[in-house]
Amino acid sequence: AGEWDLDGRCSRPLAAYESVxxxxxxxxxxxxxxxxxxxxxxxxxxxxxxxxxxxxPTGESRDPDLDRDLTACAKNGDYETxxxxxxxxxxxxxxxxxxxxxxxxxxxxxxQRDLLEIVARHGTSDPTCLxxxxxxxxxxxxxxxxxxxxxxxVADETSNAxxxxxxxxxxxxxxxxxxxxxxxxxxxxxxxxxxxxxxxxTPSHLLAPLPVQFGAVIQPSMPMAVSALRRLRCQxxxxxxxxxxxxxxxxxxxxxxxxxxxxxxxxxxxELSCSVGGYRFLFSxxxxxxxxxxxxxxxxxxxxxxxxxxxxxxxxxxxxFNSCFxxxxxxxxxxxxxxVEVVAHPPSSLSLMFVHPDTRNLTxxxxxxxxxxxxxxxxxxxxxxxxxxxxxxxHKEPINATTEPSVPVQEATLSSERxxx
Length: 421
Known about the structure:
An 8-stranded mixed beta sheet has the order 10-11-12-14-15-16-17-18, with helices on one face. The termini are far apart. By secondary structure, the chain is an alpha+beta fold. The chain is built from 10 helices and 18 strands.
């Protein structure tokens, strides 16, 4: 039980480990690979210790932080996460076995050290993780970057929910020369653009070409517009720009708004609507195709920041959209008094139009979402009489998503009514 198949999957994941917890004895479980060794110690059915040994061509190493995380995972009975970690280690080991004369994992270790060095130099003070390289976290199977936390997730101090990417290695069809040394620029100060944190590698910095790339595993998977995903994939691999369209471009995906709303919104005659308080949000935009994205591939560290910026833009768009259609909230009145028409152009903008319930004037809000997730909202209250004061005049006020992240659209709607009154 617990043996790994050649395709990298566990035939009976952790079956031996779970069954051994029923025994009131001390048991040592050791999992061997060519480049990793995992030791799990169970005392009277409870995991007391977990250690990871990393084997490289130059020797062996342990990391107390990784041992502590692995132990906590096992002690808490989180077998699903433990299985994912062990499966990822197995996959990395299998890649190394295919190229025995190349220390392919040195690329991943260098990337891990560089990202953690950025944190050591500059810290991570932004609670939304929208700035720079987010919040890098060391992991057994690579390095994770927390790149976005919604306002709801930031407010919930009891939850660790967020969007992150796990950077690891992936077997691909594309021949790539990965770096085997640090590419972090020096010096880096507060005036250094994030796009210049990593240097472009020279041939001396690169391994021999292999069908292996860096992989970015999005956790959890994120709905994206097919058009936005194609742009991102072409950005990470320019050769795709001249390649013929694949199945994703021609027939893949489902309507993005249904993918985002799930079962919360109620499609009626092909329409998407949702009641929130005294409002009924009605989607009337184009049916943009979308897919749930869980994995991307890239070749060099300098591509990480642009990739994060694109993912943040779509994450903020998704959160704004879900603030209208994500969940129904009972109305204080028998039926919603205000219908809000939502027109979307994912992932760059949302438009909302509604008739003010008191003045009966048409009011609209235009929300622009730039790369990186910074939003700017423009309010257009259409009134028949002249504007006599600043509160009644239309205004345009950029909202910085790093200080006031991803304001829910229904809150913006309520604010627009206060501005026109």
